[in-house]
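stage 2 :: seqdesign
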């Protein structure tokens, strides 16, 4: 008989209430994959969007029989697929999955070994699970898209969120002068992450914050007129969400007149980048910011909170083994 595990699934697109706890067969690792017993998974806005999307959920349900959300994980390697060489059974690992792989809100997941890395040795599983997607996104935005240089002035909009808390710290690691933008409640945290200045968008006009070589817009809420005012000549606007309106700006020459550029990131799981984040965490230069840890069975509440869009850092799901009672049966 197949061994079972708890997992959060959804069988139709909809609000957070469509998430149900179910008992499913444990997956087995394919070639080049490891099997991870998950101890923690974190919630990303992408999980909320995928659950609400008819198309994304339908693709996953077709592939796997049901859709399991979740990209981030931290856990222990419990089995090795053929052709793997990076890990041993018992290793604590963290990493990120991406569709069409089945998600991380589950007791066990199969993971391509190139999407995982040894977990930072000074973090709990919950802290480690908060890092991969937002850490990789901030790193790939700043290093690959903005190509930041030491001494540059960087403004991070949405500095208190998952990606923002990472972007503030990673820009500092690259030797930049960082200004963070957030609401009053989060200002102290953003200063504590290394921002030299924090702008409270509920009280100040962000467009008047100064001139910057790089504007990182994690929430894509800045108007393009504001972006144009904030960017110095040759400045780069980098964002987490593609914006159709930037095309208009390029066509009309309103950004290109001053050689300003816009770029977007699509995060990719990458063991080398996970190892870099791990090194920074172990050196004490990068720290996770976790708003709450809740049990896997409360995934729907966690989605409601992330959907509201005002968390400080991450909301994390703790995955218990041998203790949690299923709400529905598969
Ligand atoms: N392209 C990719 O590969 C990729 C990767 C990761 C994330 N993303 C996307 O990037 C976005 C952000 O992700 P995340 O994980 O950072 O989200 P998040 O953690 O949910 O962001 C929440 C933060 O946004 C801030 N915020 C909300 N409205 C704001 C405003 N008007 N101005 C400034 N800050 C504001 C909130 O601060 P206050 O409470 O102070 O308002 C809160 O701290 C999501 O849409 C996500 O899907 C894309």
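stage 2 :: out
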């Amino acid at each position: 008989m197949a061994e079972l595990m708890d997992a959060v699934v959804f069988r139709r697109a909809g609000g957070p209430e469509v998430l149900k706890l179910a008992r499913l067969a444990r997956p087995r690792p394919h070639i080049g994959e490891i099997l991870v017993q998950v101890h923690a998974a974190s919630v990303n806005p992408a999980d909320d969007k995928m659950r609400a999307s008819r198309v994304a959920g339908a693709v996953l349900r077709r592939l796997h029989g049901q859709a399991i959300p979740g990209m981030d994980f931290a856990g222990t390697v419990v089995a090795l697929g053929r052709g793997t060489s990076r890990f041993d059974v018992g290793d604590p690992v963290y990493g990120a999955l991406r569709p069409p792989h089945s998600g991380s809100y589950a007791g066990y997941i199969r993971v391509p070994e190139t999407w995982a890395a040894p977990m930072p040795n000074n973090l709990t599983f919950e802290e480690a699970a908060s890092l991969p997607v937002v850490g990789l996104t901030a790193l790939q935005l700043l290093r690959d898209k903005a190509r930041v240089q030491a001494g540059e002035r960087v403004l991070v909009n949405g500095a208190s969120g998952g990606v923002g808390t990472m972007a503030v710290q990673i820009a500092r690691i690259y030797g930049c002068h960082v200004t963070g933008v957030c609401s009053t409640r989060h200002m102290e945290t953003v200063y504590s992450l290394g921002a030299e200045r924090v702008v409270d968008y509920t009280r100040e006009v962000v467009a008047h914050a100064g001139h910057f070589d790089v504007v990182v817009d994690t929430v894509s809420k800045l108007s393009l007129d504001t972006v144009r005012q904030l960017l110095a000549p040759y400045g780069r606007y980098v964002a987490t969400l593609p914006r159709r309106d930037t095309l208009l700006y390029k066509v009309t020459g309103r950004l290109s007149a001053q050689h300003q550029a816009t770029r977007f990131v699509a995060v990719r799981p990458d063991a080398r980048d996970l190892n870099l984040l791990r090194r920074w965490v172990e050196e004490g230069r990068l720290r996770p910011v976790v708003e709450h840890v809740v049990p896997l069975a409360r995934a729907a509440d966690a989605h409601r909170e992330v959907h509201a869009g005002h968390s400080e850092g991450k909301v994390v799901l703790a995955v218990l083994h041998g203790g949690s009672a299923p709400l529905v049966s598969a």
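stage 3 :: structure notes
- Residues 4 and 24 are 5 Å apart (CA to CA).
- Residues 324-330 have pLDDT under 50 and may be disordered.
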